[in-house]
């Protein structure tokens, strides 16, 4: 596996650290790649905690294999190879890491192990392909989970990171023809799983939330604070898609279904009528962290995180994550 490039500073420093057995220098050289490798693992696994674990596993494997690195490939490429194989090994051992039927009449499915990704730990360079908003949004991450693991790796390396077929083939130990065939099948599957309005992941993507998106999140939080069911409903598109994870069978395809479910679950009734919230961003998407105060508790405690996809000023997709009773994504546990 080679790149058409001379030995760079990273590669030279890594080789020197490997030869000297210098763990501190090794960590210094490899650490700068942590954020993008963690995003890569997240796309493979759709779970933030698993991505953290597999990134650490990548560095452990790299340390144990350090003598095998000769600088023929870029250090970044070598680390991606290790990370990809770590994720593939993980998926081989975890049979629960596949989408499950939603239980609805339509063919929808749910990724019950899905977790959001905090923007604060994304790579800092906004030009990096690894942080393009269209390829980190939840809908895209979910769509990719419908691919078989090795096909998933091909798709991410080729269409997300933009690697040439020969480089992806080297990383996965496949032929170029196999990579090309896998990519063609993967593109069909991903397009079939994405919402109609989200079929293009290869065009230049935006990175910042708009003022309109931030305004909708504020209105969403305000509606909870005011117990304003009509106001909350008015923020939702009629064709809303909603899921509350990690519970199964909660996907709805209309705003009415979603609101009826929330009311049936006690929303704005005693115990679910005293709310506060903060605006945040996850997966480069607008999100609301909701805090609830119960009658017997003096504090507002983190209850759920709602990640929103907003189209034309209304919420088109709402993915809720249970955050009860645990510190999560470094959000404050109480307000």
UniProtKB/TrEMBL annotation:
Listed GO biological process terms: DNA-templated transcription initiation
Molecular-function annotations in GO: DNA binding; sigma factor activity
InterPro entries per record: NTF2-like_dom_sf, RNA_pol_sigma-70-like, RNA_pol_sigma-70_dom, RNA_pol_sigma-G_actinobac, RNA_pol_sigma70_r2, RNA_pol_sigma70_r4_t2, RNA_pol_sigma_r2, RNA_pol_sigma_r3/r4-like
RNA polymerase sigma factor 70 region 4 type domain location: 140-188
Keywords: Sigma factor, Transcription, Transcription regulation
Domain RNA polymerase sigma-70 region: 31-95
Stated family: Belongs to the sigma-70 factor family. ECF subfamily.
Subunit field text: Interacts transiently with the RNA polymerase catalytic core formed by RpoA, RpoB, RpoC and RpoZ (2 alpha, 1 beta, 1 beta' and 1 omega subunit) to form the RNA polymerase holoenzyme that can initiate transcription.
Protein name: RNA polymerase sigma-70 factor (ECF subfamily)
Species per Swiss-Prot/TrEMBL record: Saccharothrix carnea
